[in-house]
Amino acid sequence: MSPFFVMSLLYGLTFGQTASLCAPSEYIIHVEKRECAFCLAINTTICAGFCMTRDSNGKKLLLKSALSQNVCTYKEMMYRTVLIPGCPRHTVPYYSYPVAVSCKCGKCNTDYSDCVHEKVRTNYCTKPQKLCNM
After folding, report:
1. For residue 7, what pLDDT is reported?
2. How many CA atoms, within 13 angstroms, populate the side-chain half-sphere of residue 68?
3. Which of 15, 102, 103, 131 could anchor a disulfide with 47, C-beta 3.0 to 4.6 Å?
4. What secondary structure does DSSP assign to 87-124, as a single string?
5. Is 40 in contact with 93 (CB distance < 8 Å)?
6. pTM of the model
7. From residue 126, how far is each of 36, 37, 43, 44 by CA, in Å?
8. Which GO terms describe its biological process (predicted)?
9. Measured distance CA(61)–CA(31) in Å, rounded
10. Hey, which CATH number is domain 18-113, 3.40.720.10, 2.10.90.10, 1.10.3720.10, 3.40.50.1820?
11. What is the structure's pLDDT at 17?
């Protein structure tokens, strides 16, 4: 093996994770409750981007733990709570949502993340919309 190839391989393994483009990204979520008169459009941040990963051709030869893929996920997050306007008294008018402070490439934690990509997901309001800037 040539020294250039070995150095390139070592550099890629060492700094490959830092070259990934996983960072907090602006995102708008739409929140509504059936009982309430309005829908909120909330400006927040989520973790999004590209993470370096490996896909082995010998999947049947490797352990399942060696096949897990890295995803762009929360490193630090905080929760914010908003009041949905136009709710009757018997309804809880609050909605809490996560805000990404920093992100990392790592295993998806199902305790606080949805690790499955849904094919059909709507992110729009069916009621009159109010904008919530946080």
Report:
1. 56
2. 10
3. 103
4. --TTS--EEEEEEEEEEEEE---TTT---S--SS----
5. no
6. 0.64
7. 11, 10, 18, 20
8. G protein-coupled receptor signaling pathway
9. 45
10. 2.10.90.10
11. 46
